[in-house]
């Protein structure tokens, strides 16, 4: 998931308290065999930083579920939050936090090559602006506010 958003993003924070396993190396583009047994968030952040030197990449070696429960203000500076294979109860709590603070939440569940994702985003209102052109019908522009 991170590989797809690595360009054009100014800041990424990876939060994970687990260690890298051999299975992780097979499934994760940002991990190499030397990462086995090391912090997954740190190893991923280091390799992501190499891919996009212009971005600021940080990592937190903390349990995301505990942060959602005990320290939800940690998410305040984020504009978009992406979860991968997080338990449903934690996703629901995080969704409430994101909804209240008008943040975008992308949840991903995957197993092997099969996956599903959902997006919860704050409402964007638009205004219609009609313009007339010579010899043609009206053009409608939507302006997001």
From TrEMBL:
Residues 6-125 form the THIF-type NAD/FAD binding fold domain. Pfam families: ThiF. InterPro entries: ThiF/MoeB/HesA (IPR045886), ThiF_NAD_FAD-bd (IPR000594), Ubiquitin-activating_enz (IPR035985). Residues 31-46 have a biased composition (Polar residues). Residues 31-70 are annotated as: Disordered. It comes from the Eukaryota. PANTHER family: NEDD8-ACTIVATING ENZYME E1 REGULATORY SUBUNIT, UBIQUITIN-ACTIVATING ENZYME E1. This is THIF-type NAD/FAD binding fold domain-containing protein. It comes from Helicostylum pulchrum.
């Amino acid at each position: 998931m991170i590989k797809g958003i690595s360009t054009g993003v100014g800041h990424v924070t990876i939060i994970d308290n687990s260690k890298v396993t051999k299975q992780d190396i097979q499934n994760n583009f940002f991990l190499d065999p030397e990462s086995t047994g090391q912090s997954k968030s740190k190893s991923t952040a280091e390799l992501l930083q190499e891919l996009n030197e212009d971005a600021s990449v940080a990592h937190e070696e903390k349990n995301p579920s505990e942060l959602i429960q005990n320290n939800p203000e940690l998410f305040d500076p984020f504009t978009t939050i992406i979860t991968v294979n997080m338990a449903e109860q934690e996703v629901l709590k995080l969704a409430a936090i994101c909804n209240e603070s008008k943040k975008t939440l992308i949840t991903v569940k995957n197993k092997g090559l099969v996956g599903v994702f959902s997006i919860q985003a704050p409402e964007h209102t638009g205004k219609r602006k009609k313009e007339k052109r010579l010899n043609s019908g009206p053009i409608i522009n939507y302006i997001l506010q």
